[in-house]
Amino acid sequence: MAKSATLKVTVIEEEDEADALLKGQLTESQKEVIRLAAREAVKEYIRETQCRRVEPEQNAEETALPETGFVRLPEVLKVIPLGKTSWWEGVRAGRFPRPVKLSDRCTAWGAEDIRELVTRLAKQGQRE
User: Fold this and answer.
1) Confidence class of residue 2 from pLDDT cuts 50, 70 and 90?
2) Measured between alpha carbons, how far is 107 from 115 in angstroms, rounded to an integer?
3) DSSP 3-state of 116
């Protein structure tokens, strides 16, 4: 339900109007302007925080995979830049390695399997 509306932002110049705003006597259009401004501010904040670039040197230790052993999904996704849903779709489709259940609520992947996947994906990227 997309609704387009033209909103006017007015500058309050009179003390009576300013007092009304401070007392919470806002008109519906003024409330809507405030809501829209707040939504836009939140969206901008989210965009800025999610899109920050991290230099590889700063993040190298965090993304380093162990030579052997197991890695959990958050560590895998630091190396393979996908979301959880895309990762699990790839696992179901057979594009990504199958996990190992370490317990009822603990799923992990072999570090060797993830290293092989990274190598395979890098080779595919070079061919294209």
Assistant:
1) very low
2) 17
3) helix
Q: How far is CA 112 from CA 26, 48, 97, in A?
A: 62, 34, 10
Q: What is the pLDDT of residue 95?
A: 94
Q: Are 78 and 84 in contact (CB under 8 A)?
A: no
**CA atoms of 111 and 67, how far apart (whole Å):** 6
- Give dist(CA 59, CA 75) in Å, integer: 12
Identity of the residue numbered 30: Q
CATH class of 63-127: mainly alpha
Q: How far apart are CA 33 and CA 16, in angstroms?
A: 20
State the Cα–Cα distance between residues 117 and 128, nearest whole angstrom: 17
Q: What average pLDDT does range 73-97 have in this prediction?
A: 94
Q: Do 79 and 118 meet the contact criterion of CB atoms below 8 Å apart?
A: yes
Task: Enter the tokens of residue 96.
Answer: 């990504």
